[in-house]
Amino acid sequence: MTESDTMTEGDTMTEREWEQRLLGAIDESSPELLALAARLIRTPSENPDGDCTAVAELIVTHLSAGGIAPDTFDPGQGRVSVLAHLGEKRPDDRHLVFAGHSDVVPIGDSARWSFPPFAGDIVDGYLRGRGASDMKAGLAGLIHVFMLLRSLKVPLAGKLSFVAVPDEETGGQGGADWLLDQGVLAGADGGVIAEPAERTHPTIGQKGSNWFRLTLRGQPGHGSLQPIHGRSANLLAARAILALQQLWAMVPHPPEELRQLIQESKVAVEEREGYGPGIGAVFDHVTINVGTVTGGTSTNVVADTCTVDIDTRIPIGLTQHEVLARARELLAAENIEATIEPLGMLSEPNWTAPTDPIVVTLVGALRDLTDPGASGVLQWASSDARTFRRHGIPVLQYGPAELSSIHGYDERVPVESVILAAKVYAVTAIRYLGLRE
Question: I need a labelling partner for 232 at 20 to 30 A (CA). Which of 226, 255, 326, 421 fits?
Fold first, then answer.
């Protein structure tokens, strides 16, 4: 059979037949998928410092070997993004984006890992190493499916884009934020981000991220005269930290149409993600994490300045403005003077409607492939999804993971979940874009 005969036969295949062909191809090529994920893991891209040059080069080389000519974008400091496209968008077509980030959090104390942090090996059914769950296995799945769709000549209607961005772990300013501001994905109307998710519950919304720095100023003096002489900025900071714990008591007022989703998300995080009873309360409360406290100059000197970096996350039904206003009220009630400066990740709560076509499509694929009870839920953290939504691109997040290992020691991901995620990406692409007649 000639190549032209193959293409003619392929052009007459139904959507269902193409799905089955792709699913079979993923099973057959799963060793290649896992090998790519392993190479990504073995290519360090810790953030900080965030240099993703090497991992971007790996992705470019891999795509190029498959006949795809990607573009790279670099705003500096090694924040290299990789972008590639398949097909074209006609007036009535859709434009789907496969997206993921290539940076990972630092490995921390390597002595506390039970295996090399960048192992990139498979042991007892798990792919191991920093980034295995967050999110190099998912990124490999997107790349692998993108290349299969091209090599099999699937006659997709519309346009499919793939993008790998850096800098997600520290806020995205040099990654998704910068890249999407260039307009390179203008016109996209749906996206799948391979962020880690529970096996049958993609995330379709997230809390807002509201980081800020408190600066408190005291009066220096000799340490031996405290607390009679001098005014310690460190003690003021301690009082401020305790006062701000009351942010938890703020009451959100979410839209009526999202209240059931919030309740379902509570159940999912407690029963399926393994965090235990009570943790679901984070979905309707402001969380407050005191990240760093830096104050004073010497043990025997009353601290004149103290800075406190705080991470608050905002539930749907509250805003950054409301949380910061309440923070100032709490400090004023304790007669504490402090400056508040925005810091790091900043976003309002954001979500994609459960009825949006991209959500309906991917959830439907999950239900057909693994669990009829699959559904979208909210996530308690933040990600690049907020940036895509800010640019008018509805997205949801689904990637292979062992959630308890994310950002911790001995990060790993089940091999079967890596393969399942790739199948979900493939079926979603065919169903969302459709086939060209």
Answer: 326
Q: Provide the pLDDT for residue 273.
A: 72
From the list 19, 51, 93, 168, the catalytic residue is 168
Q: Please list the residues that pair with 406 across neighbouring strands.
A: none
Q: What order do you get walking across the sheet with 121-123 strand by strand?
A: 121-123, 126-128, 412-414
pLDDT of 304: 97
Catalytic hit among 19, 46, 51, 103: 103
- β-partners of residue 87 are 159
What are the residues facing 294 on neighbouring strands? 307
Q: Which residues of 164-181 are buried (b: 16+ CB within 10 A; e: fewer)?
A: bbbbbbbbbebbbbbbbe
**Torsion on CA atoms 359, 360, 366, 369, rounded to nearest 10:** -150
- Across-strand partners of 201? 198
Which DSSP string do the residues of 13-59 spell out, in sequence order? --HHHHHHHHHHHHHHTHHHHHHHHHHHHHS--BTTT---HHHHHHH
Report helix angle 137-151 to 415-433, nearest 10. 50
Domains defined along the chain, listed by start = 3-206+349-433 (3.40.630.10), 208-250+285-347 (3.30.70.360)
- CA separation, residue 219 to residues 146, 213, 235, 289, 304 (Å): 61, 20, 11, 27, 5
Amino acid 180: pLDDT: 97
Which two tokens mark 432?
A: 């969302």
The predicted pLDDT at position 11 comes to 55
Q: Kindly give, in sequence order, each residue whose CB lies less than 8 Å from that of residue 54, ignoring residues fewer than 6 positions away.
A: 43, 44, 45
Quick check: is 437 catalytic?
no
C-alpha–C-alpha distance, residues 354 and 360, integer Å: 7
State the DSSP string of 111-132. GG-SS-TT--EEETTEEESTTI
- The helix (run of H) or strand (run of E) holding residue 394 is none
Q: Which residues of the chain have pLDDT under 50?
A: 1-9
Characterize the bridge pairing of strands 395-397 and 121-123.
unpaired
